[in-house]
Design a protein that fits this description.
The protein is of the alpha/beta class. The protein is 44% helix and 14% strand. The mean pLDDT is 89.
């Protein structure tokens, strides 16, 4: 069907255009995709066996939908992706303000246009990207914002009394006729506003300052809510919740592999930087492990959740830390380091809701403890625990212990150039030999060398002190003797 040739209702009738509701439109297009085994919600990872099947069932059932889950669980993203299931274009009456169906107008203006022009009424074709309306619920949202109000200026200009329905200025919901309408954080809406929405969902009528209009709006409603909101800020009134036919529970990624796919898709890294900064696979895993560690931390409120944005922002900061060092030292390329994780801390502190014990520790110390915990976990994935080496077995850390025990120490600077940084690691007896048991790759070799150093510090084989961008590794017993002296 060539929409450029269909300019009036007469043309539309000749084309045998199929008129259907938005929910039927979504349902029909979803059926086609499922039959062809096409990806229905591209770019959503981790929901393939849980959330997406529930959402598909809701669309097939022509339900209004509530996504219920903690922050950063792709609730709004799922709602926005529903527009991909709409027809590319739909016809509307050209002079109607609410996307009136040319074959079945519901507004006063639309009916008047048909009555006056009949089949000569002009059409406008609306793309599916324009059929999505989103509103963030806040306590100050009013009935006028969502549904509408009497417009005295319109009444004066048209010389109409306030009793005439033509003086009504429609809000967001009527203007979303034949569209997807999304309200984020639904519990934040005042109860009286929720009642107005319920009345619209249940009865299909609008009540605006004494006007009661029967307007069978054709809207796919999608709501999002955080379970925390039910107790902390507000609640969804029972009649409205009952009218939303499908409530779909979202969740965080259950595996590091899935979390990495999300971060890789969402992180914004300049192309010229990607080519110059090497990030090992283990470093990418460690960024994701920070979020998993945070969700299990006793210092962080589990009811609030830890958004996937923590990993995304953390990865961006990790790369930017290496980029900054590369620019300062005028290096042509570099690799991310474990010391670069201290540059990730600002991406962590703003994304954690701390409990009382966490507030006592402070956000910086909590973030630091998360990083240290991830380093320890990653170290123990590759190397044995220093305290669990059995009698008779050779100690893989023996040479390192002796080197530090002889009073040697090493100072690493966050902004140190690669040549100097690697030279210092090479100077530690036994470190490179131990790292070579895991890799021969030059870039990964120094990652393992650094991992061993940081891992042993977390397990108290060596002491690590951090002062103003400088990390000092030394023998713990030597430090104790110095303090004693």
């Amino acid at each position: 069907m060539d929409i450029n040739k269909i300019k009036t209702i007469a043309d539309l009738k000749k084309s045998k255009y199929l008129n259907r509701s938005i929910k039927e439109e979504l349902r029909s297009n979803l059926r086609d995709r499922l039959a062809k085994k096409e990806d229905t919600f591209a770019g959503i990872y981790g929901f393939e066996d849980t959330v997406i099947p529930d959402l598909e069932r809701a669309i097939l059932s022509k339900h209004n939908i509530l996504f219920l889950g903690l922050r950063g669980q792709a609730k709004t993203r799922l709602a926005r992706l529903m527009t991909d299931l709409l027809d590319d274009y739909i016809p509307t009456l050209a002079d109607s303000e609410i996307n009136d169906d040319p074959l079945n107008p519901i507004s006063f203006e639309g009916k008047e246009i048909i009555k006056t022009l009949r089949d000569k009424a002009p059409l406008k074709w609306v793309h599916k990207s324009e059929r999505y309306v989103e509103k963030l619920a806040t306590p100050d949202v009013s009935v006028a914002d969502l549904i509408g109000d009497v417009d005295p200026i319109k009444a004066a200009s048209l010389k109409l009394p306030f009793s005439d329905e033509r003086v009504i200025h429609f809000g967001l919901v009527p203007r979303a006729h034949r569209s997807i309408f999304v309200i984020n954080e639904l519990p934040d809406l005042q109860a009286r506003i929720q009642v107005a929405l319920f009345n619209m969902l249940q009865e299909g009528d609008l009540q605006i300052r004494g006007f009661k209009l029967r307007m069978p709006l054709d809207i796919q409603f999608v709501f999002t809510a955080n379970p925390e909101d039910y107790t902390n800020r507000g609640s969804i009134i029972t009649p409205l919740k009952d009218r939303i036919e499908s409530q779909i529970l979202t969740h965080y990624p259950t595996s590091i592999e899935t979390a990495r796919k999300i971060t890789q898709q969402e992180a914004v890294i300049a192309p010229e930087v990607e080519d110059k900064i090497f990030v090992s696979e283990d470093m990418r895993d460690m960024i994701e492990m920070l979020s998993f560690e945070a969700r299990n931390s006793e210092y962080i409120d589990e009811k609030s959740g830890v958004s996937a944005r923590m990993s995304i922002s953390g990865f961006e900061n990790l790369v930017s830390t290496a980029e900054r060092r590369m620019i300062i030292n005028k290096d042509k390329n570099t690799s991310t380091r474990i010391t670069d994780f201290w540059g990730v801390i600002p991406a962590l502190t703003g994304k954690m809701e701390l409990v009382y014990e966490g507030e006592q520790e402070g956000p910086y110390q909590v973030a630091l403890s998360l990083i240290n915990g991830v380093i320890e976990d990653k170290f123990l994935q590759f190397f044995p625990h220093p305290d669990k080496i059995k009698d008779g077995e050779s100690d893989p850390y023996g040479i390192l212990r002796h080197w530090f025990g002889d009073g040697n120490n090493v100072q690493l600077f966050n902004d140190e150039d690669d040549k100097s940084f690697r030279k210092k690691l090479d100077s530690i007896a036994g470190l490179k030999k131990l790292a070579q048991t895991k890799t021969k790759d030059k870039n990964e070799l120094y990652y393992y060398m650094e991992l061993i150093l940081h891992g042993l510090s977390e397990l108290n084989v060596v002491t690590k002190t951090i002062v103003d961008g400088e990390l000092n590794f030394s023998d713990p017993f030597g430090d104790m003797l110095d303090e004693f002296k």
